[in-house]
Amino acid sequence: MADFTMPALGADMETGKVVEWLVAPGARVKPGDVVAVVETHKGAIDVECFLDGVIDDLAPLGEDLPVGAVLARVRGVGEPAAPAPAAAPKAAPPLAAAPERAPVTASGAPPRIKVSPAARRRAQELGLDAERLQGSGTDGAVTLADVERPAPRPRQATVARRGFDPAQMRRAIAAAMARSKREIPHYYLTSTIDFAAASAWLAAYNRERDPAERLLPAPLLLKAAAKALTEVPQLNGFHVNGVYRAGPGIHIGWAIALRGGGLMAPAIHDADRKSLPELMLALRDLVQRARSGGLRSSELTDPTITVTSLGERGAESVLGVIYPPQVAIVGFGRIVERPWVVNGQVVARPLVTATLAADHRASDGHLGGQLLVAIDRALQAPEDL
Amino acid sequence: MTLTYREACKQAIRDALLADPRCFVMGEDVGKYGGCYAVTKGLLEEFGPQRIVDTPLAENGFTGLGIGAALAGLRPIVEIMTCNFSLLALDQIMNNAATLPHMTGGQFAVPLVIRMATGGGRQLAAQHSHSLEGWYAHIPGLKVLAPGTVEDARWMLAAALADPNPVLIFEHIVLYNTEGELDPAVTAVDIRHAKVRRPGGDLSLVTYGNSLPKCLAAAETLAAEGVDAEVIDLRVLRPLDMATVIASVARTRRVVIVDEGWKSGSISAEIAARLAEDALYELDAPVRRVCSREVPVPYAAHLEEAVLPRVDEIVATARSLLAPR
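^ Those are the sequences you sent over. The predicted structure of the assembly is below.
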């Protein structure tokens, strides 16, 4: 028996409200299934459950519950049903209950299930029981990938989604950004990048293709940033309790402005490993879901860095505010034609201003500069992106 | 510019002799014979017998002379023909060179550099083929360098001579004949940091010396199978740059340590222990090691090959840490 608890969907979330259960009591759930819709200041979020078994004791709808509160219980397959709980099913779950740990098996019990240390830590963060997962690692151990692997399942019923409350979102942004500026000693770096090679490559790529398959500059900028982060991993992670911890992958939070005000930066997972067409699709999908609801909880909890691109109607550069506990934010301004010196001649070139705001507690400007240099280098070879 | 590791070592020594009149070379056969591995060939003719000093076969004696010269303000480069023979000088290295700065409360520095040939692979048998750098890395007061590239062979010596502590440089006998590219823009290297020689995301191969090219070759084989291995060149075995190793393991979560020394009580054991102490929760698989078989290195070529770490062994060990794909 394990608890399924209210996840923290970002540093600024304190409470959430279950507005819909997508599973019935007694349903079988697998790790990665979307089981509930939770309303937060970021709107209605599809919350994944990373437990395996039969779900029961669902929390009532519509109540504000703190992060960590028990939302449901999941019984492992084959595990006998728990004795009927004394509490009435409508009773409010205990607030901020400590997650219940399965008792350590005593000697004489079946052989210990192997879980890698990294997988064990991640499972704890996600509030799931790693010993219930199928291990794919060395000696059959449960690995990080086993813990993080989502098991996608088609949505059974579509329901009317509730939008976000702009005033509530404004308050949440205010809290997170004020905390960032209060706690994080930002430093800022700027580089102007010649976008001619990327532009030419993009034009040639798009000429061959139907409109639906064409690429915008955004995935190129995103991929260039992701590739650069593989070279400068010190900017891809979290500063927590005075210590920098590298992210488990390059999960780029892509800043999306919402109609009616507010913004979100949900994750594009493993952006360094995705092709440009995959990134284009991911961006379209993410923007659509951010604006209309349907983001997944892992997309809000996983970003290891934020990238913001102002697009063709934006300003020429942006000096971002870091979203804690991340340690950096990369910004791209509008691509503009300006005079530029090439081989001693002044010529008109498309240019983009790349900026970095980074946490000086976690890195120094020299390192930050390397990231911008790497982004520039990546954009000069768009065919390799 | 392409040059051999041997030539890089020689240019480094020549530079040092030209740059500093306090600098001289001392060791067995370094003068008339030109060095057992021909590193100092031609230097006697250029610099004369005051600067290129042939010594008797007495490692403890001439290493002690080197320490005395360093204490008196000179900058000796002592060559010990192979690290196996350095055991005869262990008393001087450990009880004098490594301890005098400490025992004099820092009043005396011992700016001594000792170069030694190390490692197997050239059929020189059990008294000339061992890798003892891991032992020396045990001793506080020493710095222990293991250049695995032409660049490090070319530039580590200057950094070692500039260091007030006794510095031991282990040059691998197989590397002397290898060629590498020298970046003209690089004119100095540090002797503090490990280096990522090949970035990768799927597992870390942590190594040094002649196991570096083996790991790079293994990484290419793995790349063909879709496995992206990161190769970390330790470069400096004391003090160990664990920050670089842990940062890599935190990215890849899997690590194979490749060390030509024997496994028991080796530098690979030290790295594995420190990963267990400081990076346990980064690991997604057990730490694995590829080391030499725990026997004296044999003379026969096929047996010697079987004893030393091999590329196919590194590849197989790496595969054992990854889910079948």
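The interface with chain B takes residues 116-121, 136-139, 141, 143-145, 230-231, 233-234, 245-246, 272 of chain A (CB under 8 Å). The radius of gyration of chain A is 23 Å.

Shout if you want it in another format.
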